[in-house]
């Protein structure tokens, strides 16, 4: 039934203009403004749709993951662009001083950060 459907992901925000600035200027994504919201055009994927919400609450989970060749270089570049990495000190996830987690399973390294609406995003290095 859905094998050939071109599915897309979406999430809400409390401020479309802040989202447009963050995703377009800070992260450098191609952002298209539509009457309904924003389309985030990410290389090799169907656009992600961001729409306004008057009763917005930030989710606790990661909404977008950006695979990168070098997570340390990506974190350094995000820091230069004014993005603050999240720090975690939990039993299963402990980040280093740069905000990078290196585990035994899963991606080789991953670091999390937030957009202006407190969505959790990540950069991850898989090999």
Tally of helical runs = 2
Report, as a whole number of angstroms, the end-to-end distance: 34 Å
Estimate what percentage of residues fall within beta strands.
25-35%
Mean pLDDT: 94
Strand order of the largest sheet: 1-4-3-2
Characterize the overall form. globular
The class by helix and strand makeup works out as: alpha/beta
Largest β-sheet summary: 4 strands, mixed
Give the strand tally. Answer: 8
Low-confidence stretches: none
Helix content: 10-25%
**Helix-strand string:** EHEEEEHEEE
Radius of gyration from CA coordinates: 15 Å
Describe, in plain words, how this protein is organized in 3D:
It is a single chain. With 127 residues, this protein is an alpha/beta fold. The radius of gyration is 15 Å and the shape is globular. The relative contact order is 0.20. The N and C termini lie far apart (34 Å). Strand 2 and strand 3 form a beta hairpin. A 4-stranded mixed β-sheet has the order 1-4-3-2, covered by helices on one side. The protein has a 4-stranded mixed β-sheet with strand order 5-8-7-6. The chain contains 2 helices and 8 strands, in the order βαββββαβββ. The mean pLDDT is 94.
């Amino acid at each position: 039934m859905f094998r050939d459907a071109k599915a897309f992901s979406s999430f809400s925000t409390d401020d479309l203009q802040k989202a447009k600035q963050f995703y377009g200027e800070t992260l450098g994504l191609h952002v298209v403004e539509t009457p309904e919201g924003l389309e985030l055009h990410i290389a090799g994927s169907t656009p992600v749709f961001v729409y306004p919400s008057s009763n917005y609450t930030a989710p606790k989970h990661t909404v977008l993951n950006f695979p990168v060749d070098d997570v340390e270089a990506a974190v350094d570049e995000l820091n230069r662009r004014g993005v603050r990495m999240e720090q975690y000190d939990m039993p299963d996830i402990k980040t280093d001083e740069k905000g990078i987690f290196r585990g035994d399973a899963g991606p080789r390294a991953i670091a999390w950060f937030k957009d202006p609406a407190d969505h959790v995003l990540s950069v991850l290095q898989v090999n």
